[in-house]
Please model this.
Amino acid sequence: MVARRDFEPKIIGFLCNWCCYAGADLAGVSRYQYPPNIRVIRVPCSGRVDPAFILRSFSNGVDGVFMGGCHLGDCHYITQGNYYALSVMHLTKKLLEQVGVNPKRLRLEWVSASEGNRFAQVMIDLTGQIKELGPLGVGEGIDANRLKLKLEAVTRLVPYIKILERKRLRVRFETTEEYDRYFAGDEFKKLFRDLIADKLRTEEIMLLLREKPMSVEEVSEALAISPSEASSYLNHSARQGIVRFDEAQKRFVLADVKEQVLS
Amino acid sequence: MAKEPIKEQSNNPVKSNIGDVMVVGGGISGIQASLDMANMGFKVYLIEKSPALGGKMAQLDKTFPTNDCSMCIESPKFNEASRHPNIEIMTLTEVERVEGEAGDFKVTLINKPRYILENKCTGCGVCAEYCPVRVPDKYNQELSNSKCIHVYFPQATPLKSYIEPDKCLFLQNKKCQICVGVCEKNAIDLYQKPEKIEIEVGAIVLAPGYQVFDPGLRNDYGYGKFENVITSLDFERMLCSTGPHEGEIKRPSDGKHPKKIAWIQCVGSRQVIPGGNSYCSAVCCTYTQKQVILAKDHDTDIEAAVFHNDIRSFGKDFERFYQRTESLPGVRFIRSYVSVGKELPKSKNVTIKYSTTDDGVKEEEFDMVVLSVGLNPPENVDELAEKFGIELNSHSFCQTGPVNSIETSRPGVFVSGAFQGPVDIPESVMTASGAGALVGQLLARRRGKLARKKAYPLERDVSGEELKIGVFVCACGANIGRVVDVPAVVEYASTLPGVVHAQQSLFACSTENAQQIADHIREKGLNRVVVAACTPRTHEPTFRETLREGGINQYFFDMANIREHCSWVHSTEHEDATEKAKDIVRMSVARASRLEPLEEFELPVDKRGLVVGGGLAGMTSALSLANQGFEVFLVEKDSELGGIARRLRYTLEGMDVQAYLADIASKVYKNPLIHKMTDSTITETSGYVGNFTTKVKTGEMVREIQHGISIIATGASEYKPTEYLYGQDDRVLTLLELEERIAKKEQKVTNAQSVVMIQCVGCRQKDRNYCARVCCSQAVKNALKLKEINPQTDVYIIYRDMRTYGFREDYYREAADKEVKFIRYEPDDKPQVEVVEEGGKRILRVTATDDIMGKKIALDADLLALAAAVIPSASSKEVSRLFKVPLNPDGFLQEAHVKLRPVDTAGDGVFLCGIAHYPKHISETVSQALAAAARAAEILSNKSVIAQGSICEVKESECIGCGACEAVCKYGAVQLQKKEKGKKAVVNPVLCKGCGLCNAKCPTQAIALKHFTDDEIFAQIDAAVKAPAKAPELVETR
Model:
């Protein structure tokens, strides 16, 4: 990973109206200077940020995504959306990691309306950090087409993940550290592996096969997984009736069924 | 379509000379008073003698301690006032005579000729271009020239030219009529004559403001003789982008950028010599710090020296502001009296002589000297007093009541702003609102009788129209234009899909530009508007109103923030900032393309108020609301009303606090509209402006009350010192304890030979980094009382800066005259207190360094009084949580805007006052409490409040009834209901607050937060990186 001096990262920031956006305003009023890389989208609450917003941003090729909300306990709304934002951030980081995007490209910070200097500092840090990571995909050493496919696959899973999140992954702690611990812990890792990782792989395979029929070897190469892993996913999907092996082509093809991501 | 001024077009005013209130003075205080009263339902005549609204605030570049752009926060108020259906603005108008009495005044006005037909002039400025006569520009402190015919300043309201008659060639010698010839609108009438107008009103609010001290009269510090000695107001104009040199600091002698600037404090203030003012002007310390910061912003190499006496950083966040200034490189604060030496003949530099304890007398050369001039009473104040039949105080400011600084000596005539005495902007705004409350009490019965509602043109149905986006890019004077290439952004905007009109505006927020936008909406058929300017958080409401006036739905508006988020934070990166501005505009246009018309609806207002805290502030608010005719619940946690004021006995000015408190408490007890709830606390509060529900716990009983507004007046506490042997030696007291003992005439006090006071105990330190504002005056007050009891008592006040601001300075001087000894200490060399055994006695000994003598002195004290800080009350965190009012870093409740919304909070319908906001004196508390009552009354006076349109809605066909939305909505705004096709989510629009959490949780995109839909946000995300190929269709695609 080499930091390129001429690389100016594109960053999208989702700022809650009441704290972080106001903090950014105050940075302006106070003339705190920071790099001009961020493009701000104002949302009423950091809880409004949908994982799909973040994934869409990366699909569009931005190099970093920032979420800014009120400090915990300070949410303007009694719904305390910033706690949910924290979960969304952790979960989305995990999704990004799963598809090969460096999760450090997503960052969430609490900035209050009176922390203009902090906003500027966060922007300086963030821009520097994303610069070091390099352009999206290049920094990760992942092929652009493959990244695009993987991001699309994970985007298609968002509705499923939302349902899952509510049923199995919703947690509520008081501090960011507790969230950090939970999402780094074994319990979450297992749930993620069992409930999301496999689903995501299947989704990727379906997207591949939508383009053209493929053999086990071709799938394994396209997704950078071992042939045995590819074979196991393909067979599993075949048993579920999502794909089938076309004897004539000696390739797997998409079964003629409605895609059911919500199943 | 006819281009009639909106006001006439939509309101069809009945020509009448009968109103409710006349406000005299169109500065920030007069504007605020007018707006408050107009919103309460009173018809207001706002009289201003100059050609435009704005007053002194309009001349300031920035405002302390946030360095907010002064014009940017004030001009929306011009706009609001000029559009308000209940406000009649009369500029170039002065009062000639006032007859009658409270409730029934007849005011005779003289309207001076503008020589312009206001209904025809567009403020285009062509006349000024052609006018051959150059005159010194008064708005720019005569540092530059303008023309004899010109618009007063770029954002002037009304934006109309005017002619200075004594310079006009035609009006003087009938020689020239060039302007008449070039004016395409035939708006110039050189034959206008003064007009006499009689108006009947029930009350008068005087807000004539102040004038700055004129150092030219005595050639103070060489002013008027040395070219490079200027006043602080001159400097303020230089800093400003609309100033004489477009924001460049240039010294008058040679136009060079000064590198070394000196500020001299207390010019015309704290002086007992003839021609000076004995009082402290209260604002100069902090405005100087602001100017130093701004000067350094303009040019980091500038070296600044501030020659000062005490640094009076007594306001909220002032202490930090001072520290910020002091810590800048190349900035020196020098505590010394100064005299100006000489002007050096060649360089025109000026030398200043000063002395410090370390270096003795020095003479130093500066490129420029700024005199921090004080505040004087308004011009022709004696005449003014006579016309209005009011009394003046010994400083020729308005004589006000000892507690209520808004009342004058004449019933029905009130005073707000700096005519009360030197005050800053928030104080001017507070007293303006407070005046509104007193007028509301006086005229309660006629409220609403003359009020008119603003009518808007019918909203155009744009469905089926193709996209027609108008983009207006603001240069904001030079605030944006200096960094961002505005013409390039305009050109780029015009290439974006859907954009049919793009233009530049010098000030998008000006009334004139608003009119232009409205005109373009009508004439070009715009159906979306993007304004690329400053932050939507302050200006969106103004522009939404413009859209309504233009006849389209107000939600068809989006604001691209290219100032706070661009030009101000990338001020040296012109190219990158310009590119960023283009991106921001592109995102905004993409979003605008998808905006949908939304409906706002009216919610009924529960006309009862809740006041939390039964101290002086709470009682004052409650009583004012009741006297305005509203029912009030007053909740107090103690068993008795009065709060911390119960511990105060007298004020500096000699008022009997307990008598006053007893009087107001009895009025509160007797008032049938006030429901007193003592020994009570609030356990829960919910709802929204106009409709709150709060649970009040009294003993074991919990009562639920409904109310339309809340006023928080929960007070503060006295710091309990751990230092200076407090609690270990019973001779060590706090100032409040001393006061109680003085009042009780305890022998220990009356017989004391030596009393020592130590200031700044528990504050102005790392963990409590603020000044508690009242302690210096409290110390002086008690010192004078001790001297009154026994002139032989030795009283010592050991202080850091004596902060007896305003007229309190007189008492400080009186104390010094009566031999109270003042000894200054530095924070790193605090006084030491010890008990020493001498001759069998335990002596309380205070040792301090006398900074003048430069040596330690030991004082044996019979009593030691500590000026213990005022600290946030123990309940403040809980109050903050319950009412969603944030706390500032020091733990005091945070107002919505430091300068212009000093009693509002982040939550609509929740107000604050008293020392829960920040420590303050009794009269200041009363003003603020009245202000809160006025702001609350603005809501309670109306039948309904408008609920915003950005709330959630459900697309039933998409809803799978999973309940994810219901589960996260703590407002209870979303509920699953049984429908034909199973359970579906249903939104209660009254309860929805528009946070959008449900939208983010919905797996099927069935519930959407209007105005922040997925579609709109995806459009912004996509536009952030690339321009869309073609305009999206307007069909709903979600």
About this structure: The beta strands of chain A are 11-16, 38-43, 64-69, 106-110, 243-246, 251-254. Chain A is about 50% helix and 10% strand.
